[in-house]
Amino acid sequence: MSNTTTTNYPVLRLSNQAMGAVMMALQESLLNQLDIVPIIKGFELQTGEEGLVVTNPPTVRVSNNQVVTEEDLTTMAGE
């Protein structure tokens, strides 16, 4: 199996850290019934030893009952 696609771009995989960032984004969006797209779209990715790394992972609030808005998600994504 080759490490490149037919266009000679390298095949990139998500690192465990990046998978955690995706899971945090999913958890936040499900808990607050909001669109996950603003968070994922705002991810800044870099290649690392284990694969792609999200340099601006989202945070998930667990200590208060404040409703998270679409604007909050956009802010979390760094847009």
Brief summary:
With 79 residues, the protein is of the alpha+beta class. It has three helices and two strands.
Layout: helices, strands, pairs:
Blueprint lengths: L15 H16 L5 H6 L2 E4 L2 E4 L15 H7 L3
- End-to-end separation in angstroms reads 37 Å
Structural shape: elongated
Decide which structural class fits the backbone: alpha+beta
Count of alpha and pi helical runs: 3
Q: Uncertain runs with pLDDT below 50, 5 residues or more?
A: none
Percentage of residues in helical conformation? 25-40%
What pattern of helices and strands is seen along the backbone? HHEEH
What oligomeric state best describes the polypeptide chains here?
Answer: single chain
The major β-sheet equals: 2 strands, antiparallel
Gyration radius from CA atoms, angstroms? 15 Å
Q: pLDDT average, as an integer?
A: 81
Total strand count, please? 2
Strand order of the largest sheet: 1-2
Walkthrough of the structure:
- The protein has 79 residues and is of the alpha+beta class.
- The chain has helices at residues 16-31, 37-42, 70-76, and strands at residues 45-48, 51-54.
- It has one domain (16-76).
- The protein has three helices and two strands; from the N terminus they run H-H-E-E-H.
- The mean pLDDT is 81.
